[in-house]
User: Which sequence fits this backbone?
């Protein structure tokens, strides 16, 4: 079903498994106050590209609308809890967000666990 994304099916399956319990991830993310959320629109795009997922899939996992994801990635300011939900969904899928360190914010994918 997702083979057209050009990414190994294992990454997409891992994404689904990691965010299957999005309520837990969202509950954790609610502890992040809006000023503490570090996710930027560029990081969101980079994370989706790294995972090989589209806007629809991220929106489903974060329980927000596709328009919300599109607006955020276009640079529109969203409520802190919405940004936290996007961040939590991406972190649950294995994305590590790198804060500004002089060169700009970035993302990294966790190493696959040896299962």
Assistant:
């Amino acid at each position: 079903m997702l083979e057209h994304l050009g990414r190994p099916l294992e990454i997409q399956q891992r994404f689904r498994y990691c965010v299957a319990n999005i309520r837990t991830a969202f509950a954790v993310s609610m502890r992040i106050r809006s000023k503490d959320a570090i996710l930027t629109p560029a990081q969101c795009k980079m994370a989706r590209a790294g995972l090989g997922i589209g806007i629809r899939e991220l929106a489903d996992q974060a329980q927000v609308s596709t328009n919300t994801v599109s607006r955020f990635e276009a640079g529109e300011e969203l409520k802190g809890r919405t940004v936290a939900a996007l961040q939590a969904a991406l972190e649950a899928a294995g994305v590590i967000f790198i804060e500004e360190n002089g060169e700009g914010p970035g993302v990294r994918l966790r190493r696959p666990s040896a299962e």
